[in-house]
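ok new one. same drill as before - structure tokens go in, u give me an amino acid for every spot. 201 of them this time. try not to just spam alanines like last time pls lmao
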């Protein structure tokens, strides 16, 4: 029969070797190819190179991207994801029934990566689960900020670049802390723990 160890007993248990490794070293600790394949397969995406895993404290959100309709946006998003740009950024603007917005390094909607993208407006409708780029008045001003639609938003169609869709974990998008007022700015917002291209996992 197992028993709980007392405080004095646990002090004598040696730490695992990985405990003393620095961050840069822990990244080198891999997993078997079989396990990696199982993880990728578990997300059931059509194309792992064009799919993103977005981790939140509520759960995993899978976004499948549309390189056929927004190739430049998809390429730039993947580039930023692989740089770790989105890790730790907040869902700073969340309006219940409308959308949840993230991707601003300043956390207030005024920042970006510094590279503007030419609009790739397409015919994909803004419906629940669609992921689209935020922008300023200039159509070619999208940068790193994006939003996920909570419901159908037909008035956005053809005005913003749709580049993906949540195919798993929309219930976790629903759980994101909501903002207040017309702007939907959030006090103490939820964050993106990490974003990864699924083929890289």
């Amino acid at each position: 029969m197992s028993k709980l160890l007392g405080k004095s007993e646990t002090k004598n248990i040696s730490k695992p070797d990985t405990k003393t490794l620095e961050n840069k070293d822990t990244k080198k600790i891999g997993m078997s190819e079989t396990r990696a394949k199982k993880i990728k397969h578990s997300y059931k995406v059509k194309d792992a190179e064009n799919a993103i895993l977005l981790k939140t404290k509520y759960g995993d959100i899978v976004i499948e991207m549309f390189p056929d309709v927004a190739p430049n946006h998809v390429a730039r998003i993947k580039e930023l994801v692989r740089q770790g740009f989105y890790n730790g950024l907040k869902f700073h603007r969340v309006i219940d029934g409308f959308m949840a917005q993230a991707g601003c390094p300043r956390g207030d909607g005024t920042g970006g990566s510094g590279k503007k993208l030419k609009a790739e407006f397409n015919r994909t409708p803004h419906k629940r689960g669609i992921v689209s780029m935020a922008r300023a008045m200039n159509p070619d001003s999208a940068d790193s900020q994006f939003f996920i639609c909570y419901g159908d938003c037909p008035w956005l169609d053809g005005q913003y670049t749709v580049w993906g869709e949540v195919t798993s974990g929309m219930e976790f998008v629903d759980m994101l802390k909501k903002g207040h007022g017309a702007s939907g700015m959030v006090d103490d917002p939820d964050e993106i723990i990490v974003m990864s291209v699924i083929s890289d996992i």
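The beta strands are 51-55, 60-65, 93-95, 99-102, 130-133, 146-149, 162-168, 194-197. and btw Residues 1-29 have pLDDT under 50 and may be disordered.
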